Amino acid sequence: MILSRVSLGFLGLFFMAASILLIFLTLLGGARNSTPLNEIYFLQAATGNIPGAPSISRWTFWNVCGVTNNGRNDCGKTHPDYPFDPPSHRTFDTTVNVPPEFIGTKHYFLTSRFMFPFIIIGLFFAVCSLFTGLLSMCTRIASYLSGFLAWLALTFQGITTCLMTAVFVQGRNAFNKNGQNSQLGVKAFSFMWTATACLFLSCLMYCLGGAVGRKDNSGYSGRKERRRGFFSSQRSNSVRSQKKERENNSYA
């Protein structure tokens, strides 16, 4: 076959490694002011009319950042699982000129907060699938195990990506409705959705690798049985011929 268990296992490893890289880039975006991490953010909004806020704000997993003259993130102290909640004390600590959609609700806070644990859980299963995927090119069981772990990673990654899309698209619309120009972070959204697609392809390749291995083994067993049957029949015919010859000699 054109696609053997080895080639399918390698493709599964390739897509899994690509998804892990993209997830790490998105997760670490804003953690340091170094390239390429200072180019990754979920949402950018014009917040110059909000007291104490920078002229342009960018939200990441770790903080809300300003923007440098060359268009890069200018992030300060990091806080893991940083919530998207503009009026709270964690961000601007005011409701002045903050879009009314953010005031008096926990929707944005809770939705953005759940993103962080889900992406960590998905990343854990993805890394486990990457290691077991090294054996998927050798055994059918490892292929199915890697596919199962990839499916778990895909589930949590899909939840994270959907939460991210929902909360920051709503946030962008709220800022734009309030006359504050805002836009989504192209890199973060591209990385997250591409990682989700890569996880799906990796899961598919691993499962196909296990199925192809089973078919090949069945075919090999069938050929082995046919060979054994052919030689067995030859041996039986030879024994019968010798027995018949001995009987004829005894009558003579």
UniProtKB/TrEMBL annotation:
Membrane-spanning residues: 7-28, 114-136, 148-169, 189-213
InterPro entries, alphabetized: SUR7/Rim9-like_fungi (IPR009571)
GO CC terms of this entry: cell cortex; membrane raft; plasma membrane
Region annotation Disordered: where it falls in the sequence: 218-252
Basic and acidic residues bias: start-end ranges: 242-252
Polar residues bias locations: 231-240
Keywords, alphabetical: Membrane, Transmembrane, Transmembrane helix
GO biological process: cortical actin cytoskeleton organization; endocytosis; fungal-type cell wall organization; septin cytoskeleton organization
Alphabetized Gene3D superfamilies for the sequence: 1.20.140.150
Name of protein: Actin cortical patch SUR7/pH-response regulator PalI
